[in-house]
Write a structure and sequence with these properties.
Layout lengths: L2 H7 L2 H10 L14 H7 L3 H9 L15 H8 L2 H9 L14 H8 L2 H9 L14 H8 L4 H8 L15 H8 L2 H9 L14 H8 L2 H13 L7 H6 L12 H30 L4 H6 L2 H30 L3 H5 L22
Helix pairs in contact: 1-3, 3-4, 3-5, 5-6, 5-7, 7-8, 7-9, 8-10, 9-10, 9-11, 11-12, 11-13, 12-14, 13-14, 16-18
């Protein structure tokens, strides 16, 4: 097995043999000038990397067609532990390859969220620029179909309205060019500018129209109407009106009051029907109920079921309020060890209350 294969497949005994015998050094490279550390990094061979570092290899060696470092290779593959090992041992975070990409650009392009977060935590600017003055957020919007890489960049302070130097595209432009609806939604939630135009005087909506991307057009037009940038029909104003009525989202008290009102109102209704029957029949029995007005009997049953159902929901809500737990925590207490505090399955407490 040659040195490159030993590094690729994590064959420590073979590498130790080669290093100790002097057949190779820790800085051995193949025909493409890729070092052993490159191959260990791309295959996430931590023990191999540690061995090479102990033998004083160059952690910033460049190789391959793109003249990349081992850190670039590990970032592209999303190997955060390998990236951390390299950085701890002197890897330069901002070193660029032949395309002008830092390891952060590579991680953002590949959707490697943990590596993105780690590199920024180690001092890499969240809006660092490549040769085309594109930021990691632009690459994430253009390349990644999952929300996490772009969202972590935005959370850590990425400028969602920054434009590159070649096309003057913002991240929203790049997401629209790629037809990346997930990235577009993420950027819209971050309140990006819908009116920014690029070098060709095109907004993101113009690009979507040119590409005949129906889904992107609908998304951008809906947000534009919401912000008052374009006119909306009466029907659109009604159907697209935001309704923040999720239970427990600033209206839990109103929900409790609603349940109490339903229980109280249905009980009064049931009492009125029972009083009506007693006034007519003097007493109640199953035979009498079968002979009475069927519609009135049906409404009595529906009202009673509603009262019982809402009363049970009210009891559960009050019980959860007293325990200071959410519905999710109560239903999944058996799965969360940090919530279960006693032998009794009802003895639960949320550490977040």
């Amino acid at each position: 097995m040659d040195p490159r294969e030993a590094a690729q497949y994590g064959n420590l005994p073979r590498l130790k043999e080669l290093l100790d015998s002097g057949e190779i050094t820790a800085n051995w490279t193949d025909s493409d000038e890729c070092s052993l550390l490159h191959w260990a990094a791309i295959n996430n061979r931590l023990q191999v990397a540690e061995l090479l570092i102990r033998h004083k290899c160059n952690v910033n060696a460049v190789g391959g067609v793109l003249r990349s470092t081992p850190l670039h290779w590990s970032a592209r593959q999303g190997h955060v532990m390998m990236a951390a090992l390299l950085v701890r041992n002197g890897a330069i975070v901002d070193k660029r390859d032949v395309e002008g990409f830092s390891a952060l650009h590579c991680a953002a392009q590949s959707g490697a969220t943990p590596v993105v977060a780690y590199l920024i935590a180690k001092g890499q600017p969240v809006d660092c620029l490549d040769e085309g003055r594109m930021t990691p957020a632009m690459w994430a919007a253009f390349k990644c179909t999952t929300a996490d890489p772009l969202q972590i960049l935005i959370t850590l302070g990425a400028d969602v309205n920054k434009s590159d130097s070649s096309y003057m595209n913002t991240p929203l432009h790049w997401a629209t060019v790629a037809g990346n609806l997930t990235a577009m939604k993420t950027l819209i939630r971050a309140n990006c500018d819908l009116t920014s135009v690029n070098r060709d005087n095109e907004s993101a909506l113009d690009i979507a129209v040119r590409k005949a991307d129906v889904a992107a057009i609908r998304l951008l037009e809906k947000e534009a109407r919401k912000r008052g940038l374009i006119n909306a029909t009466f029907l659109q104003k009604i159907t697209e009106r935001p309704v923040n009525n999720c239970i427990a989202l600033n209206n839990h008290r109103s929900f409790i009051l609603y349940l109490m009102t339903v229980v109280f109102a249905t009980l009064i209704f049931d009492f009125a029907i029972l009083s009506f029957w007693l006034d007519i029949y003097g007493s109640l029995s199953w035979e009498i109920l079968k002979s009475c007005d069927q519609w009135l009997l049906f409404t009595f049953i529906v009202s009673t079921v509603s009262a019982v159902w809402c009363f049970c929901m009210l009891v559960v809500q009050v019980y959860q309020i007293l325990l200071e737990v959410t519905t999710n925590e109560r239903l999944n207490a058996h799965r969360y060890a940090h919530i279960q505090v006693g032998d009794n399955k009802f003895d639960i407490r949320s550490p977040y209350s």
